[in-house]
């Protein structure tokens, strides 16, 4: 799975019929980094993605993304042409620093 931050929405008035009713978001994958103090933070990394969303994620939220066939398994019809889906909204994240301290 990928952790990403929602940075926008995509609207498509014309699309494949099987995609009707599916919300689309633009997300930026993030990675965990360490400050010189050892504190943990999340930093955007790589290309943005367009992902399907059936659970109602909103802008700036941190989400879990499934991709490939795993993404399609979260849909009622596994033949829908989607490469990535939001499968969870992260309410809280806790990371251990290099020194063992925990940060939220």
How would you sum up this structure, described in words?
- The chain has about 100 residues and is mostly beta strands.
- Helices cover about 5% and strands about 45% of the residues.
- It has one helix and eight strands; from the N terminus they run E-E-E-E-E-H-E-E-E.
- The strands form two sheets. Strands 1, 2, 3, 4, 5 and 6 form a six-stranded antiparallel β-sheet that branches. A two-stranded antiparallel ribbon has the order 7-8.
- Strand 7 (about 95) and strand 8 (about 100-104) form a beta hairpin.
Structure described in brief:
The protein is mainly β and 104 residues long. It has one helix at 69-73; strands at 2-10, 23-34, 40-44, 49-53, 62-67, 84-89, 95-96, 102-103. The longest helix has 5 residues, at 69-73.
What's the layout of helices and strands?
Layout: E1 2-10, E2 23-34, E3 40-44, E4 49-53, E5 62-67, H1 69-73, E6 84-89, E7 95-96, E8 102-103
Number of helices: 1
Q: What's the helical proportion of residues?
A: under 10%
* Average residue pLDDT: 86
Q: Tell me the overall shape.
A: elongated
Output the CATH topology.
Answer: OB fold (Dihydrolipoamide Acetyltransferase, E2P)
Key words describing this protein structure:
OB fold (Dihydrolipoamide Acetyltransferase, E2P); mainly beta; 1 helix; two-stranded antiparallel ribbon; 104 residues
């Amino acid at each position: 799975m990928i952790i990403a931050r929602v940075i926008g929405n995509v609207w498509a008035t014309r699309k494949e019929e099987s995609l009707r009713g599916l919300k689309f978001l633009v997300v930026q994958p993030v990675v965990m980094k360490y400050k010189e103090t050892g504190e943990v933070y999340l930093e955007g990394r790589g290309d943005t993605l367009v992902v399907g969303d059936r659970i109602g994620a909103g802008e700036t939220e941190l989400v879990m993304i499934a991709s490939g066939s795993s993404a399609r398994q979260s849909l009622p019809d596994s033949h829908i042409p989607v490469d990535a889906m939001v499968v969870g909204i992260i309410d809280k994240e806790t990371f251990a620093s290099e020194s063992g301290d925990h940060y939220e």
